[in-house]
Amino acid sequence: MLRKTYIIAEIGINHNGSLRNAKKLIDVASVAGCDSVKFQKRDPDVCVPEHQKSVMRDTPWGRMTYLDYKYRVEFGKKEYDEIDRYCKKKGIEWSASPWDLGSLEFLMDYDIPYIKIPSAMLNNDALLAASRETGKRVIMSTGMSTLEEVEHAVSILSAGGNTNYALLHCNSSYPAPLEELNLSAIKTLKEKFGCEVGYSGHEYRLDTNVHTVSAIYLGATILERHITLDRTMWGTDHSCSVEPQGLIKLVKGVRELEISYGDGCVGVTEAEKPVRKKLRGD
User: Fold this and answer.
1) How many CB atoms are located within 10 Å of the residue 41 CB?
2) Is the alpha carbon torsion for 93, 230, 168, 257 positive or negative?
3) Dihedral-angle region of residue 62 (phi above 0 means left; psi in -120 to 50 means alpha; beta otherwise)
4) Which domain holds residue 162?
């Protein structure tokens, strides 16, 4: 049986506030064969801690407060209307991670296939409950969380008998050290919660994406990777992101592994039959 892994290309804020960059990244994800692209949606006034709002920061647009910077890279209705139109044109799904209740409400104006809860919001009970109540599928990352914290979050997502959710194992370091990836936790989450489990990878190796690809053999059926046009671009997430060629190779690797996964039954394959006849005579 051919397995199908749902692959999410995490654009996040790697568009750097440019709709043109966002479209280029959508193009990359579409060409690579990803199933969806994902952005992040915030109300900076709500999400930026008070002690951080007035901190000055050097940016490509000049020196400004951290709050002004967050507004500078935040997309609004005009941009998301165009993202929605462009993704439909390209035949690829899109969604976003809401970081506050207002952003969740904003996203509900669009026919998105799922709501992605970032690891940072795993302990936001109100956001989890509101996401569940939308009736949309909820995909939640579990980075920087204890098993007890994940249990509590799942208890909210599963309230009322809801089963329309999935978990993504991840390490929230950017980039994540290989020795701390703990890919075996994918199995732990599947056994503990009995739900669909995937992997959100923040590791980066110039030579291979084997860690993300191999996650599907540990039971991951959803993969999420940050993507960028250029890892040297200004911004916090670019260094742990996959560039266009890397994404194409990653998706190709996943699809080839899906083909080779098989059903686990031992027997003579079609390709082996003529070889068997030649070497064994039967």
Assistant:
1) 21
2) positive
3) left
4) 6-280
Residue 4 CA to residue 184 CA, distance in Å, equals: 20
Matching residue, tokens 């996401």: 131
What is the number of domains present in the chain?
1
- Is position 210 within any domain? yes
Q: Are 153 and 128 in contact (CB under 8 A)?
A: yes
Tell me whether residue 165 is in a domain: yes
CB atoms within 10 A of CB 89: 10
pLDDT, tens digit (0-9, with 9 covering 90-100), for 159-174 = 999 999 999 999 887 7
Sheet holding 165-170, edge to edge: 93-98, 36-41, 6-12, 222-226, 196-201, 165-170, 137-141, 114-117
The CATH number of the domain holding residue 117 is 3.20.20.70
- Residue 236 is encoded by which pair of tokens? 């916090």
What percentage of the chain reaches a pLDDT higher than 70?
Answer: 98
pLDDT per residue over 177-225, tens digit each? 888 899 999 999 999 999 999 999 888 765 567 888 889 889 999 999 9
d(CA 82, CA 90): 12
Examine residue 62 and state whether it is found in any structural domain, yes or no: yes
3-state secondary structure of 55: coil
- Kindly give, in sequence order, each residue whose CB lies less than 8 Å from that of residue 239, ignoring residues fewer than 6 positions away: 174, 175, 204, 231
3-state helix, strand, coil in the chain (%, to 5): 45, 20, 35
Instruction: Report the alpha-carbon distance of residue 158 to residue 208 in Å, rounded.
Output: 37
Residue count of the chain: 282
CB-CB contact of 217 with 257 (8 Å): yes
Q: 97 and 118 in contact (C-beta within 8 Å)?
A: yes
H helical segments located in the chain: 19-32, 44-47, 50-53, 66-72, 77-90, 101-107, 125-133, 147-157, 185-193, 210-214, 244-261, 273-280
In a domain, 157, yes or no: yes
| Separation CA 217–CA 223 (nearest Å) | 12
